[in-house]
Cytochrome P450 (Chrysophaeum taylorii), 481 residues
Amino acid sequence: MWSWLTKTVFSVVAALLVAKALQVISRVMRTGGKFPDAPSSRKNWFFGHALELSDPAKRVDIIDGWCEAVGTCEFRALSRRALVITEVEDVAKLSSLRPRTVQRSPLMRTLCDYFAPGVFTAEVPQWTVERRIVSPAFHSNARLSEYVPNIVKLSERLCEVVAGKEVAINATMNKFTLDSIGLLGFGQDIDTLRGGDDDAAMFTSCFAILAKRLMAPLPYCKLIPYFGERMDGGKARQRALFQFLEDVVRRGGPDRTVLAKLLEKNLGENNALTDERLVGNLATLFLAGTDTTGTTITWMVKHLAEDSTLQEEARIEARRFANRPDDFGTVPLLRSLFREVLRMEGPVAVLPLQNTTEPVVIAGRTVDPNEYTLIVALRFLGKHRLPPGEKDPTKFDAWRWVDRKEKDGLRPWPKALMPFGFGVRACPGKDLSELEALIAVGALLRRFEMTLVDDGKGPHGAKFAFTMIPSREIYVNFHPI
């Protein structure tokens, strides 16, 4: 009996695997070629460009290289076909079609929904409801001002932690932003900066799991029922995250927290969010607001630490900012530094989309619904599609956006710069991210002389880990002034 059952199970599994392999091969053999092929010496008939893209540390650099060589182009990884979009006009067209005709790619949506089923991946009509509930927690100066005292409190704690030490700023800044989400999001002082809750720090490993799943040759989570989602530890982390946040929602949020605002808005909705969706949006806040802002602050500190002139000028602004930490007009240089980091080293280098219901014309050719994953090359656009006459657009310049003649001391951003996404689907937390960065970096400038530690390994680069992060630890010495 058991022998027959075992043989039957193995036969069914083998048949399913063969069917899947044949499906992949049939898709691989499907002709493409509407657009120039991405140049690659490692492309072959079965894997396509997957072998060249197999190293996460180089993946975005390779895609940027293709953009420089041929502009808008297509590539294939097994049966997945992608179109890399490099022209501002085409991106503007996609922006105008969001969120109804053009949406996030199904793969990206499925992956993110596993850990954070919230406004980031929701599509209409669910997105319309969630956006209406989530946005008020971020989109007003008065609302952001309410968060300032807690950000200042955490910035002072950050200064205490780094004082007089050589610090790996990557991990430290991620802890700062994680603590900020805990305190601003639902009023809980997680205090990972001082080791107060090691379990909360575990949640940041979700990025590594998402990156692994995104680049897996096949979606093993679906291909291998039950065991697939447990192969990389994702299920355990998902359970821990959801349990933690379910408890938070049940307790409710203190006044002046994101959760309090969500609950308040949700009560007035005819189509109120379920507890599951509220938990998902808190998870979105965690995942979208930790590594991304933490990485941006890391690069800001790194550039300040290696340039004494920049540091001194920024320190003058930081001292002025101390008395008015919600007045961005007092810190044009720091804001310019923030923007330049996002342009050159932003945490989001590419944005995967898909036209789901209607054809769209890209680079003069018609793309049918679901024919390609549309890869918007955000970092390439920021570096190579600035207005004509822009001085050294491919080089980092912290002063690039300063213009004392403008009301807020900054030049307007060109259309090519879209580090927070574009159109109505732009990240609702972008202003909060900038506020956190300016207050934290300002506090460090007022308290310390910062010097970059030379580890003898050359310039620091970035690698893909779902978001773009420094490819190795960046160490900075913080000398009290």
In short: The chain is about 50% helix and 10% strand.
